[in-house]
């Protein structure tokens, strides 16, 4: 029987067991090569029993969040947080003006929480969503920032020094005790809630992961002796063409990206790109009259723009339980001005979206399996013990995409075997930026970092 053009397209996104295993093996090998990974200098996780008050800032491309994090023990936290927009004037001004502003934002927070520490310093953690060359738990030189920032006098400077100088100018008794990225923060913050957490994952517009590794396996670390360390994998940049099951649509996304051949794994699984895969496949099938035949092979202008089909539309369509798939009709009418979809068109759009969503979940599960194998050997520490391993995952794709967690668990069962997979927990992790930074400041303050 001849396979239709539509089914042929969908089948490209359906992964065989062998294809998934190649991803596991390929990423495990890249983890061994240690090319992208960055040591965090964090050598232990919180137990969930810690108490105390720690400050945190989370600096991204759009906003600065400041937080006072009260560790209450028993995995409980109380958070007082403020959010401040980073203006274009600040982004293109001087470094001194930027860091003075950050200090002012922290001073505002301290007034709200009415902290009275006497002569004691307040310890603070920093989540910094820009490239730095980290040299210690609380030191790192700022590299190119991007995201609209143009602060030449900041480049190459130690982030801790920049912050501490501003605190001195503003008479703030704050000590920078830790600098982390958001993935490390996700792992640490969720470990406080669930001490069995061994992996932290970000799965949103982009993706990354951190896990606990033996220091003997961290080739980029040359500091004091220790047994283990949280390792930032930068797995977004991992993935080689020889084992990634790229379709022609994946290759097209990569070809027109800012840096072709870079972050190929991320381009196949994350929120920025999943919707674009749907759009490219739809455009191809419309032109070949394999879907929306009433358009007679002509692609509407509304579907021609890059990134026009949002991953949010995929979530909306997969959220509907009705076999009529009315959400498909609504999305195309409201967002693209396309009417006249037949019942078969709606089913086909749903099937395409479902296949792309399932592929993302399977590939992320494969990557998580690679981390488990790398950290623990092929036993995954599950053969001789009933120990639970928790993976904390933050991000809109995991949180909001329908059935994503279930799809990941099904993929893990296929990769690890059902018995092993029952000892893996996938849990939503939130606010890793501020809570994670505060917790790492606590860990560092009490000697859990090098």
Automatic annotation (TrEMBL):
EC number, as in UniProt: 2.7.1.-
Pfam families listed in its UniProt record: Hexokinase_1, Hexokinase_2
Residue span(s) of domain Hexokinase N-terminal: 6-192
GO-annotated cellular components: cytosol; mitochondrion
GO molecular function per UniProt: ATP binding; D-glucose binding; fructokinase activity; glucokinase activity
Hexokinase C-terminal domain location: 198-443
Keywords carried by this UniProt record: ATP-binding, Glycolysis, Kinase, Nucleotide-binding, Transferase
GO BP terms, alphabetized: glucose metabolic process; glycolytic process; intracellular glucose homeostasis
Pathway: Carbohydrate degradation; glycolysis; D-glyceraldehyde 3-phosphate and glycerone phosphate from D-glucose: step 1/4; Carbohydrate metabolism; hexose metabolism
Gene3D superfamilies cross-referenced by the UniProt entry: 3.30.420.40, 3.40.367.20
Top-tier EC class: transferase
Catalytic activity, as annotated: a D-hexose + ATP = a D-hexose 6-phosphate + ADP + H(+); D-fructose + ATP = D-fructose 6-phosphate + ADP + H(+)
Family indicated by similarity: Belongs to the hexokinase family.
Protein name, as recorded: Phosphotransferase
């Amino acid at each position: 029987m001849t396979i239709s053009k539509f089914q042929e397209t969908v089948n490209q996104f359906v992964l065989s067991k062998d294809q998934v295993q190649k991803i596991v093996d390929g990423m495990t090998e890249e983890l061994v090569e240690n090319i992208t990974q960055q040591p965090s200098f964090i050598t232990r996780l919180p137990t969930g029993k810690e108490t105390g008050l720690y400050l945190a800032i989370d600096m991204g491309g759009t906003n600065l969040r400041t937080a006072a994090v009260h560790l209450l023990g028993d995995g409980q936290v109380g958070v007082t947080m403020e959010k401040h927009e980073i203006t274009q004037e600040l982004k293109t001004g001087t470094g001194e003006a930027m860091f003075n502003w950050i200090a002012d934002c922290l001073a505002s927070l301290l007034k709200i929480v009415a902290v009275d520490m006497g002569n004691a310093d307040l310890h603070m953690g920093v989540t910094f969503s820009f490239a730095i060359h980290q040299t210690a738990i609380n030191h790192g030189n700022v590299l190119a920032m991007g995201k609209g920032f143009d602060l030449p006098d900041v480049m190459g400077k130690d982030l801790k020094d920049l912050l501490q100088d501003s605190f001195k100018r503003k008479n703030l008794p704050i000590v920078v005790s830790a600098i982390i990225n958001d993935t490390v923060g996700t792992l640490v913050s969720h470990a406080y809630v669930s001490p069995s957490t061994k992996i932290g994952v970000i799965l949103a517009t982009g993706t990354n992961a951190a896990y606990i590794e033996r220091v003997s396996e961290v080739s980029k670390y040359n500091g004091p002796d220790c047994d283990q360390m949280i390792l930032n994998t930068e797995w977004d940049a991992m993935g080689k063409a020889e084992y990634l099951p790229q379709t022609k649509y994946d290759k097209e996304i990569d070809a027109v990206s800012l840096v072709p051949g870079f972050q190929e794994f991320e381009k196949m699984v994350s929120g920025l790109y999943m919707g674009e895969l749907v759009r490219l496949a739809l455009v191809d099938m419309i032109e070949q009259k394999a879907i929306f035949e009433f358009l007679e092979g002509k692609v509407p202008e509304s579907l021609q723009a890059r990134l026009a089909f949002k991953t949010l539309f995929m979530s909306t369509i997969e959220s509907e339980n009705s076999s009529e798939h009315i959400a498909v009709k609504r999305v195309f009418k409201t967002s693209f001005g396309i009417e006249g979809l037949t019942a078969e068109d709606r089913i086909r759009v749903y099937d395409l979206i479902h296949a792309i969503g399932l592929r993302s979940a399977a590939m992320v599960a494969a990557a998580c399996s690679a981390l488990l194998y790398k950290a623990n050997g092929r036993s995954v520490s599950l053969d001789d013990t009933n120990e639970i391993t928790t993976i904390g995952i933050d991000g809109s794709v995991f949180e909001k995409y329908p059935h994503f967690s279930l799809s990941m668990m099904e993929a893990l069962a296929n990769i690890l075997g059902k018995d092993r997979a029952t000892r893996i927990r996938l849990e939503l992790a939130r606010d890793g930026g501020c809570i994670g930074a505060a917790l790492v400041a606590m860990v560092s303050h009490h000697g859990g970092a090098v």
